[in-house]
Amino acid sequence: MSKINLNWRHNQIFMAGLIAVALFIVGGLVNASFLSPTNIGSILSMAVLLGFAAAGQTLVVIAGGEGIDLSVGAVMSLGAVLAAQTMAGQNSNIVPALLLVILSGATIGLFNAAGILYARVPPLVMTMAMANVVTTIQLIYTHGSPVGMPAPIIAFIGSRRLFPFLPWLVVLGFIILFLMQFILRRTVYGQQLYAIGSNYNAAYLAGVRAGTVKGIAYILSGILSSLAGFWLIAYNNFVFVNMGAAYVLPSVAAVVIGGTSLAGGEGSYTGTLIGSVILTALASLLVVLHTDEAGRQIINGLVLILLLALYTRQPAIRQ
Amino acid sequence: MMRLWRRLRSSPAASGYLLLLLGIIVNILVQGPDFFTSYNFNSLLAVNAPLVLAAIAQTVVVLTGGIDLSIGSNMTLVNTVAIALANQGHWPVGASWAVALVAATLVGVGNGLMVAYLRIPPLLATFASMSVVGGIALWVWPKPGGMVPPEIYTAYGAPFLGVPVAGWIIIAVALLWLVVSRLRVGTYLRAVGGRERSAYASGINTAAVKFFAYTFCGFITGVAGLCLTALTASGDPKIGLLFGLNSIAAVILGGSSLAGGWGSVGGSIAGALFLGLINNIVFFLFRNFVSQIQSLTSVASFYQQLLANLIVIFGLASAALTQRGEAGSGPGRRRRGGTQHV
């Protein structure tokens, strides 16, 4: 049974990969420059940024219990603002900036976890309310116009390329992929995360400190999204308010397209990364096609519905 | 008195009513006797009617164990279609508003098809339709502008037989819901939300019930969108942005469970009004007390938002804590230790 499951899961990632390749081929047919190393490089860079934001989302969704983190975008924005202000273009400020960014993400994750575990607020609503709070804190802190810029080294990693098609950010993406796979597959914590996701009560009765494991998932999600904000300003090289707002729902979509079930208990980060590539390639393709904002939203939604209908159909109820 | 209290306490909506009561008391304290003027009641109802209606729409879907994220975009679509047809297409206002209402219902039909027949999880299905519907709204009316005949928006804000027109609309929709929930389909909605498999086993066409829930939700959302249009008297492709998630917050505040099966429209109305009152309270709090503090005045509006958001979290937490249902959530169950079902 587990073998069939494994095959099926791999198939889903394989299918996602196939869709990604198909998108690139369509893009190349529409406009040959779509397949230029430079363009592929920038698509991959943006996919890594989305993948960063979706990393925490993957953990939270795997933990189950209707787990979802809608504060990803707000935390990302706050991380970007804090990183830019603390670094202020100085290499010597990188370490304090990183520490501050990680601390802020962890704090917000902790509040999310407390609301979900102790006050029993559904994750969807708790993280949404938290996102509102974090966004207003960001506005108060910056008065609406954040200052600062990334340190030269960070900006270098964020925007330069090793080869035309291989930005440094993508190298960073592989490191994150390795770390996430290690956490999920090789650590006790990862195993416990899958356990509480597939059956919370059974895991609890088997001695897993289920609440703690779930809480840590939200804290890790906060940290990872905050770091996503850190790299977002490195990539853009400037900062503005609510930079991360556009990443919230795509991060959920990337997780789902990558084959992680919203019911929890299964999924992988490799899939999430491929999902990020699909979403970014699609967005880039629509730009190449010169569709306006309205057309982009409509096509994005329709493609998403198509993917969802292919992937996430629940079994029919039968006797 | 005690019996009334016990009855109230046993209803899941108790938290919603209590929060609303608390909100009203605090509002009277910070606003003073002006709270009791009919002008104040009129404007409170007129401003908050769209959210109240959106919360009712959301409750119908939540009862079946679903969720509708697209309510905000759908209200935007209604707004833009009604404005675009009347202003650009030079249609009669009545006809263009009717078309807008039909469009909203069709969005509900689409959501229903995806959730009930394609069996896509509701959260994802409505998230995708949110994008499509928002895109169509942007295509229909790309920039803020346009206008509504003055008769409509003055009528919307005015009282009729002592009750504001906005209040009458809420009463009408609530009555409509009362009728529907007394029909067989109302029972089916709860049955599907409680345990879909059992509902199916007892011969209920669960797919059709879910389809009905999303369609009905779309229709009420249409009414909410028309109220929003009458209130703002112009078209704006970003107007509904916050309504989707706020309606969910209102439903939680009203004591309904996102797991489905039980919930109360009355509680959701109370929850939505509580959300509306918070803004009122924070506004008067800042105008009457905080304006003396010099350092705060420059960014006062941000602090107002922050305070309002924190109160919402407090409300959500207290609503969730007082919720009791089959999920076994609640402080009593937790204190006893043992397993928790989240």
Automatic annotation (TrEMBL), chain A:
CDD domains: TM_PBP1_transp_AraH_like. Its main location: membrane. It comes from the Bacteria. The keyword Chaperone does not apply. The chain crosses the membrane at residues 12-34, 40-63, 70-88, 94-117, 124-142, 162-184, 215-233, 239-257, 269-288, 294-312. It holds the Pfam family BPD_transp_2. InterPro entries: ABC_transp_permease (IPR001851). One of its GO terms (cellular component) is plasma membrane. It is a multi-pass membrane protein. Part of the ABC transporter complex LsrABCD involved in autoinducer 2 (AI-2) import. Probably responsible for the translocation of the substrate across the membrane. The complex is composed of two ATP-binding proteins (LsrA), two transmembrane proteins (LsrC and LsrD) and a solute-binding protein (LsrB). This is Autoinducer 2 import system permease protein LsrC. The gene is rbsC_5.
TrEMBL record, chain B:
Its main location: membrane. GO terms for molecular function: transmembrane transporter activity. It is found in: Cell membrane. Coiled coil: none annotated. GO terms for cellular component: plasma membrane. Keywords: Cell inner membrane, Cell membrane, Membrane, Transmembrane, Transmembrane helix, Transport. It is a multi-pass membrane protein. Pfam families: BPD_transp_2. The chain crosses the membrane at residues 12-32, 44-64, 71-89, 95-116, 123-141, 161-180, 211-233, 269-290, 302-321. The keyword Transmembrane applies. This is Ribose import permease protein RbsC. It comes from Neomoorella glycerini. The gene is rbsC_4.
